[in-house]
Amino acid sequence: MNIMSVKRNINLHGIDEELCNSVEERISEFEREHEPDLLKGGTGWVTHIRKLDYAIAIFINLAITILLVITFIE
Amino acid sequence: MKIKEEIFFNLLPTRKSERVYGFWDFLAVQICFGIAAWFFLVGSLTGLTVDAKDAIPIILFGNAIPLFLIAPMAVIFARYGVEQWLGSSAVLGHRFKDIWLFIYITSSFGWIAYASFLFGESTIKFVKVFDGPLMLTQEVPGAVVFAMVATLVGTYLAYLGPTTLKHLIHAAAIFLLVVLVFFTWTVFSKFGIDTILSAEPAKPLETLAWSRASAIEYNVGLGFSWAFWYGQWTRLARTESSAFHGCLWGWGILAATAGIFSAFVALALGVYDPSEWIVSLGGGLAALGLLLFAVANVSSVAALVYPMSITLRSRFPNLSWIYAVLICSLPAILLENPVVFESYGVYLAYIALLSGTYGGIMIADYFLVNRGKSSWRIRDLYITGPESRYWYWGGFNPAAVIATLAGAGFYLWTLDPFNWVSPNGLFPYITAGIPSFLLSFLVYAVLMRLWVLPGMEKPGA
Q1: B332 and which of B109, B123, B193, B420 could share a cystine (Cβ 3.0–4.6 Å)?
Q2: Cα(B440)–Cα(B152) distance, integer angstroms
Q3: So what's the pLDDT on residue B3?
Q4: Omega cis (within 30) before B141
Q5: Beta bridge partners of B396
Q6: pLDDT computed for residue A16 by the predictor
Q7: Phi, psi for residue B116 in degrees, rounded to 5
Q8: Which residues, at least 6 apart from B108, have a Cβ–Cβ distance to it below 8 Å?
Q9: With a cut of 70, which residues of chain B have pLDDT below it?
Q10: pLDDT for res B460
Q11: Does the CB of B385 have a partner CB in chain A at under 8 Å?
Q12: CA–CA separation, B83 vs B71, rounded Å?
């Protein structure tokens, strides 16, 4: 059976009915409003990270690595 | 009851409207959580191993680079809004995730033990200032008994729940900052910056290469350790960028400044235990410093036990709160002794092994697997058994299992933490934590792309 073709119920061990219903409500909301976008490379619940964020992190960490290398070479 | 609400909330995917943390909130929270016993001790250890010229870049590199490598984990949990271990099921498989959850809980006992024993060390010196009973001024049994007391008090504070804890964590961070700033100023004015910068480390290893590699490894252990603590926070992020930057800089460069200062103090005084520095002040000032330090360490214990207990309780919702808190704290008492306290470097190496391997797998999944059509399916995180696409082979993702064994095996081949020797001789040249991270990253990525993923049902099919 194709497991994606039918809606399957959540079955986490030990959760009560109230919590189960709340989880189901949010999962359905995510599947309806976000998952189709996400499968095409779009956003999840919140705004996607930008390439600039990675660039900033790479730049600063590269500088730290160069500092270490220079210290060791000296 | 607050706890019940917390656990209820912890299991739900968080909607955008419920997200409370922006960049500055994250930065503040992570600095508060980050600056604690673990940073003071790793700074001291570094200052005992290498000189000041090496210590600064080593502490920055050792903390910042591992955090940079695992930083996208912040994005994963912000994107899906799920709790860390629930989300890890997608990568590890539902049952293998439980094994990693067990590793997370048991390996965290060490952090509790170090914070508690530092409380013990501070308290015996505090008792000594006031000429207390001799027995309570000695490391054994004095510090051991006080460490147990710290664990029990911290456990009780965690049991009281999030409201009490929030105030305590903030107070603890302020106390530690006061101690840190005051001591830095005192040490610099007493010894002078030139003396500190030219001071020789008190306990270097046999060669400079071994000293440098070991100092890097201590810091890498702390840097990678955050891999276990992302999802608890970043599922509450307002944007993926705020989660990414807040954790990266808060736990990294900014909190690492505490390590740099304690390395300077260790270089100046040649001692490992931060409470020894405080005693050097003498009189009432020392007593006040010791008191602040002790209180801060108890708060750190509570700040660890609480998220561990919430995680455990989320996995086992039928477990009572009191049992969850006790399970997540009391075993730490077994580690509260001078031998373990002096072996912080060994503990950090084991943490680098575990969290680096786990981080490598998670990041490989983020960059090379969990994209576009292969993005996580949130429903399958909440379904256990063969119906879930994350059940893999009986609940174990074979790619994650093999990558774990490869990463951990390579680490132990490169550095035997217990004896601090390198079986393959590579440690002084490449260290162990970062290469093991890269290896588990590569093994997981290759196995998933070429073997596991093609066999899984394609989304949308």
Answers
A1: B109
A2: 37
A3: 58
A4: yes
A5: B393
A6: 84
A7: -65, -40
A8: B228, B304, B308, B328
A9: 1-4, 7-8, 163, 166, 281-282, 457-461
A10: 46
A11: yes
A12: 16
Q: At what angle do helices A17-33 and B2-11 cross, to 10 degrees?
A: 40
Give the one of A2, A22, A71 whose C-beta lies nearest to B53's C-beta: A71
The closest of B30, B433, B430, B439 to B230, measured between CA atoms, is: B30
Helix axes B84-92, B94-129, angle to 10 degrees: 140
Tell me how far apart the alpha carbons of residues B416 and B420 are, in angstroms, rounded to a whole number: 5
Rounded-to-integer distance, Cα B191 and Cα B194, Å: 8
Name beta bridge partners: B421: B416
Contacting residues of B for A29, CB less than 8 Å apart: 15
Nearest to B29 by CA among B351, B358, B254: B254
Interface of B with A in 143-202 (CB under 8 A): none
CA distance B259 to B44: 7
Angle between helices B144-160 and B283-315 (to 10 degrees): 50
Tokens 């009780």 identify what position? B156
Per the document, the length of chain B is 461
Asked if B114 and B406 count as a contact pair (C-beta separation under 8 A), the reply is: no
> What are the tokens at B10?
């912890």
CA B39, CA B42: separation in Å to the nearest integer? 5
| Spatial CB neighbours of B175, under 8 Å, sequence gap ≥ 6 | B292, B293, B295, B296, B299
Please give the Cα distance from B305 to B311 (Å, whole number): 10
How confident is the model at residue B461, as a pLDDT? 37
Helix (H), strand (E) counts: chain B = 24, 0
Higher pLDDT, B65 or A74: B65
Taking contacts as CB-CB distances below 8 angstroms, the residues of chain B near A46 are 16, 19, 78-79, 237-240
**Which residue in B has a C-alpha nearest to residue A72's C-alpha?**
B54
Report chain A residues whose CB lies below 8 A from the CB of B11.
12, 15, 19, 23
- B3-456 in CATH: which number? 1.10.4160.10
Contacts of B455 (CB under 8 A, 6+ apart): none
Burial class (CB in 10 A: 0-12, 13-18, 19+), B278: buried
- A23/B12 CB distance under 8 A: yes
Interface test with A, best of B61, B101, B391 (most A CBs within 10 A): B61
**Is the Cβ of B213 closer than 8 Å to some Cβ of chain A?**
no
Render pLDDT for B359-401 as a digit per residue (tens, 0 to 9): 999 999 999 988 877 889 999 999 999 999 999 999 999 999 9
Instruction: Answer whether A39 sits within 8 Å of B375, measured CB to CB.
Output: yes
In chain A, % of residues over pLDDT 90: 49
User: CA nearest B379 in A: which residue?
Assistant: A27
Q: What angle do CA B319, B324, B329 make, to 5 degrees?
A: 160
- What's the distance, CA B233 to chain centroid? 14
Distances (CA, A) of B177 to B34, B46, B121, B186: 11, 20, 19, 14
